[in-house]
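Protein data:
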Amino acid sequence: MWEVQPVRSGRFSLTRTLPDSLTTWEIKAVSMFQNGICVAEPVQVSVNLPLSVNIPLPYQVVRGEQLDLEGSVYNQQPDSVTYCLTLKAGPALCLLKSQPVAGQEGQHSTTCSSWSKLSAGGVGKVTFTVMGLEPGEHTLTFTLKTRSRTQDIVQKKLRVVPEGVKTAKFSGGTLDPQGLYGSEKRTVTLKNHVPANIVPNTPVERMLTINGEVLGDFVSVVHSAEGLRQLVNMPAGSAEAELGGLLPLFQVYQYLETTGRWDVLGGDIQKNSADMRRKIKEGLVSISSFRGGDSSYSMWLKREPSTWLTALSSAAGRIVQRQVVLQTQQTHGCRLGSC
């Protein structure tokens, strides 16, 4: 608030009613005259209602859980007062000892069946019992009354969450309309079924995420030298872990070779390319250590073979080895020709 008041010499008095029930206002006076300006020290004024209520709510409650709301009524008056506090809620909440509100469909409220007396400067305790019937944020309206009039109205939101444990399921696919990574694919069908043991009347959230290019996540890692070092120095482990480190590295290498965007790594382009090829070859050698005498692959050294791991390792090995070895030979050929 800002006001301009003409003031003559001497004392000036101004009376204003400050809004809000529980607030500290800072009042500052600035005077301007022909010879300059003067700023007075600010004064803080605490404002409160003669009779007020405070009902703290929990962050959230589980549907079907009975909740006892305990609050306080504050009497700032010099005299005692007789008061009544009511609570009004919607149909999504069960309110103990409540009745339907006339003219407000679905709303129900407690009544002033009994009045309480509160001494001057005293604090009175109030309690309400509610239960959440539907998930969501529901409005609670507390009305503080005296024999003469309504003193304070407070509205708060009660968050109700469904029972059970929240779970997430993921499914995905690859769209390749131009066939850059194999056969052309323009349609992906995502089959998501609602679990049979879902809690009744529980909302199901579905979110669809689409990445512009298949290697976007991997390329974002190698846009910095630190990301490249983390990618090419992944620790060794099982055959599955070795493949999990080799395949993304090879995909990034193939992407950079195809697009010619080695400049994103900075520094010496030939050295970066050679280092990545070296890491890929080391990955191939490491994976081959999990191959048995019958050319099958096992998850761990000298363990039983795995059919799916054998198929994946063989296919990945052929593609990676053919691509890297061919490009290495082409690079050496260019160097020999230039000599």
Observations:
- The first strand starts at residue 23 and ends at 27.
- The CA atoms of residues 59 and 159 lie 7 Å apart.
- The chain has five helices and 15 strands.
